[in-house]
Amino acid sequence: MTTRTEIKTGTQGALIPAPAPHQSHARNGGMPLDTAMFESHRVNRAAAERRCATLAGRRSVKKVYQAAWLVNAIRCVDLTTLAGDDTRDRVQRLCAKARNPLARHIVEGLGLAASDVQVGAVCVYPTMVPHAVAALEGSGIPVASVATGFPAGLMPLSLRLEEIRWAVAQGAQEIDIVISRELALTRNWQALYDELAAMRAACGEAHMKAILATGELETLSNVYAASMVAMQAGADFIKTSTGKENVNATLPVSLTMVRALRDYGMATGHRVGFKPAGGMKQAKEAIGWLVLMKEELGRDWLNPDLFRFGASSMLGDIERQLEHHVTGRYAGPNRHALA
Ligand SMILES: O=C[C@H](O)COP(=O)(O)O
């Protein structure tokens, strides 16, 4: 995937740089459960909110860079459909959008080639995996499948593990699992670790994203602890939400999780990815999260290897903003309705 492309602004003719190229890194190998790394860690919500408010002041990425940031945001999107009425046709349309997320005149106006702009992955329910795999053949775009009884996860563990293995057998390269909220709420960290380690083993070569469903974990201290347990059990990514909770991705929750990522990385040397998900619809939100990643973890976390957005309806606004950048005009919101 090209990440160093210089983007030519259509209206100004200036060259603007894309973020630094990403380096591939070894998978998180996990470690034995070590509750000392999180048991006494308390997260102060007011302090987390204050820190996020200071980040808001840095969110006004200068106009000349904004298009590059938004193109990079597209590269980090897990383009998602997780609806009860999903069909093969809908998944095929989504995959066509994943291959070409921007209209040709926008790509050309930015001075890019079509192959420069693809999404990070397509994320679907398990039975939609074969349709997505077929539709994305040859594109290099991985298919992510939710599994383990998404979104609630209230199924026997043996069935949750079998669902992972089934989705992998269908061609999913990434598996978005949900944790048992009860185990986090009762702070039964050993049981949570054991479940997650079994899920990681069931994933095999497929990368495991552990959805914490943070809107249901009550405290940021629980969010920090659950993040640590997931990473110790070998998660490749930790992810905020299913998109189905009452509260999904927020910046204070994300700050808590990326601080856990940083602490785990400093203790073990392992790099784990982060995926905020649920409820993100606007391009400016994408910039806000990218700023958080850059400020807290550095430019390496601006790449799809280590950062993804889980979003079913944010790409449309990003495309709209980029079209404005290229043409100086806004299209109606329904023009870029898909995704
Ligand atoms: O993992 C992705 C989420 O389910 C997407 O949530 P959303 O539909 O609110 O964008």
Strand content: 5-15%
Order of SSEs:
EEHHEHHEHEHEHHEHEHEHEH
Under the CATH scheme, which architecture would be assigned? Alpha-Beta Barrel
| CATH topology annotation | TIM Barrel
In CATH's first tier, which class applies? Alpha Beta
Q: Count up the domains.
A: 1
Query: Low-confidence stretches at least 5 residues in length (pLDDT < 50)?
Result: 1-22
What is the helix content? 40-55%
Q: List the ions, cofactors and other small molecules found in this model.
A: glyceraldehyde-3-phosphate
**Oligomeric composition of the shown chains:** single chain
Strand-helix topology:
Layout: E1 6-8, E2 15-17, H1 45-56, H2 63-75, E3 77-80, H3 88-99, H4 104-109, E4 121-124, H5 129-135, E5 143-146, H6 157-169, E6 174-178, H7 181-185, H8 189-203, E7 207-211, H9 220-232, E8 237-239, H10 251-268, E9 273-275, H11 283-297, E10 309-311, H12 315-327
Parallel strand pairs: 3-4, 3-10, 4-5, 5-6, 6-7, 7-8, 8-9
Antiparallel strand pairs: 1-2
The structure holds glyceraldehyde-3-phosphate.
InterPro entries: Aldolase_TIM, DeoC, DeoC/FbaB/LacD_aldolase
EC number: 4.1.2.4
Organism: Roseicitreum antarcticum
Can you give a write-up of this model?
The structure is a single chain. The protein is of the alpha/beta class and 339 residues long. The chain has one domain (38-336): Aldolase class I (TIM Barrel). Helix content is 42%, strand content 11%. It is built from 12 helices and 10 strands. The protein has an 8-stranded parallel sheet with strand order 9-8-7-6-5-4-3-10. A two-stranded antiparallel sheet has the order 1-2. Helix 9 links the parallel strand 7 (207-211) and strand 8. It is globular, with a radius of gyration of 19 Å. Glyceraldehyde-3-phosphate is lined by residues 80, 82, 123, 242-243, 277-279, 310-313.
